[in-house]
Amino acid sequence: MARRQNYRIVPIPGTPNSLVLGMTWQTVLGQDLTVAAMRAARQASATHFTQSGPRSPAVGLLLASGRERRAKARSRLYSAAAAFAQIQRHGTQIAYASLASGEVWIAVVVDGVVQAGGDMVLADVPSAREKLDSLIQRYGEVVVHGAEADGAQPFALNQLATQTNQQSSLRRAAFRLSMVPPVWWVALGLLLAYLAWDAASSWWQSRAAREQARLHAMQDAVDAKAVWRQALADWSRSVRIDGESGLDQILNSIAMAPVDPGRWLLIEVDCRPDTGTCSAVYRRTRLADSHSLKAALPTGWKFALHDIDTAVVQWTLPAGAAKRPATLDLNAIPSEQELDATWVPSWQALRPALQDFSLSAPTAVSVRPPNIKLPNGLEQPIDRPASIALPAMRSLVINAPLRSLYALALPPATALVQLQVRHQPDAQPRLTTSEFAVTLKGTLYVQAR
Which domain of life does the UniProt lineage start with (predicted)? Predict the structure, then answer.
């Protein structure tokens, strides 16, 4: 997005707000899609971004120029493509709108998600018609809104004014120096001058040196090894682990989720062991309603409607995993050699039945340094002795058919972060694919090298 972006700003009548046409859309991945969207915007040097929905991986980016770039712009900006996606949540939909400048705006939405390259401003009608024909040929069965074509639905940009909400609103991606008014630069210069004068004070430097020497003397009088061993023990009691037994428990809980309760079709299941809960998304089919879903769900399961055709069902994992989780035993953490000798061969044997298997390099865990009390009432952290090694952790990510996880071996010092199952009724059964695709995320704890 380093080059100038071809976008247009269209005011919304009766309001100080405007629609943005011609944003750049891309797909992001991650556990927190909002954080991933902001990271993508900053990497692309975008000034604004928006998402095609709170759980959507589609992110729209804008490199604004002119008054839209300034920090105190009075009008709010909304993505026209994101607003159109809120109206058209099912099937492949194409918006076609002529602008007063003679240009034409085209947007492509599939099942409520704006497609990459599907938010564009064309220079004239002939090029727009050519682009529209190529999109229809590419996507096949589509519904066109606004174009003068057979079967086209009526459409005008002012219809999108009803969808100018938080979901379609553009958020600033990052703070830029160009947004700072000149008066603040003056204030910043005065502040830096004061800080430089203060740092140059010889009295402060000599006083800080004497205080540092006194603190080092106090640390030498403390048994740093014993204090750090206690800090590691306290940290390990705060770390939840699952191991193979925890994985089996979650798989048994997922197996209880019905595929088509009351004519509702299962879309995905998401289990979070740290909270002891699972949730499932169901989509309504013909002749199904809320009463049929409620009657078909297991006892104790609750559901809420996300919209009229989508329900989110929630239930808790068994009480043993939620109320009394096992904690990390420092003496049971395997070494890298034990991991390579015991578990890696079993993963290699199972690898042909997995889509992908990712195990990150070891990184030291973060343990808060212990403190000692100073005579003045303040606390001072104790440096960790070189002989005290911190445990390491490795991130595990597996994508595979659900059946493959029943053969997965895990070290006892494993914490499961998330297990997500996606229902794909049209998937062709193969060694690495099935009707139920799963993503497993976890953390393996190992001894430091």
Answer: Bacteria
